[in-house]
Structures are given as C-alpha cells and as structure tokens.
Design a protein that fits this description.
Radius of gyration: 40 Å
Number of helices: 5
Order of helices and strands: HHHHH
Mean pLDDT: 79
Number of strands: 0
Distance between the termini: 120 Å
Helix content: over 70%
Largest sheet: none
Structural class: mainly alpha
Length: 140
C-alpha cells in the first residue's frame, strides 16, 4: 500500500462537497426532529385541553346535582308544635308514596325512597291526570 506521502494531493483530500452534504443532512435531520416534536406537542396540548373541558363539564354537572339535592332537602329542623297540625292535615290526605302506589302508571323501582323522587312522581302523575281530564271533554 502506498504511503500517504506518495499519493497525489487530490487523493489525500476528501472530495469537495462532503462538508456541504454533512451540513445539509444535519439541518434536514434537525428540521424533521423539530417537526416531530412540534406535532407531538400539539397533539398533547389538544388532549390536555379536552381533558380540562371534560373535567369542567363534570364539575358543573356535580355542582348542579348538589344544588338540586340542597334545594330538595329540608334543612330547617321541624319543631314538635309545627308538626302536629301538619300531621293532622297529612292524615286527611294520602301521603306521596300512597298516591304513587295507588296510581296505575307507577311502578316503584330502585331509588323510590330517594329524596325528591316521590315529589317528582306526584308532580308527574298530577300533570298526567290533568292532561287526561282536559282531553276528555274534547272527545265525546
């Protein structure tokens, strides 16, 4: 093998353009990597925003439900003097659960004794009865 001194000068130098190709390749790799990182960051940000919106919607739903529960529960304790007239009036009328159980359109299920369910049921059957009563005169 010939020694490097015996080789011509053109053979000892790397071909021209190798440095330029190396720079272009490095820049291209950097740009592709930056594009991949930017796309990944964009997708992560999208996913994060969706999670935030979903969490916000869930918090609002829970807050509305808690507000509903608070509005349907009696928070003031009843005194014994006030209960006596209310009990006398209640004995003259059937209770909400009795009214519901006596109605043909009602079938009790799980949650029947939950707060607000019976009151809502009575409101619904009253509306149904009113609608049926108002529809009867129209149909001879």
């Amino acid at each position: 093998m010939p020694s490097p001194r015996s080789m011509p000068a053109a053979a000892q130098r790397p071909p021209q353009g190798s440095d330029e190709k190396l720079v272009v390749t490095t820049v291209a790799i950097f740009l592709v990597a930056a594009l991949i990182v930017a796309f990944g960051g964009y997708k992560y940000l999208q996913h994060w925003q969706q999670d935030q919106e979903q969490s916000r919607a869930e918090r609002q739903t829970y807050q509305r439900y808690n507000d509903y529960l608070k509005s349907t529960q009696d928070t003031a304790p009843k005194s014994p003097e006030k209960e006596a007239p209310a009990e006398a009036a209640a004995s003259a009328q059937p209770s909400m659960s009795e009214r519901l159980m006596n109605h043909s359109a009602v079938t009790p299920g799980p949650g029947f004794n939950s707060p607000g369910v019976q009151q809502t049921g009575v409101t619904i059957i009253d509306a149904m009865d009113l609608a049926q009563a108002s529809a009867k005169p129209r149909n001879p």
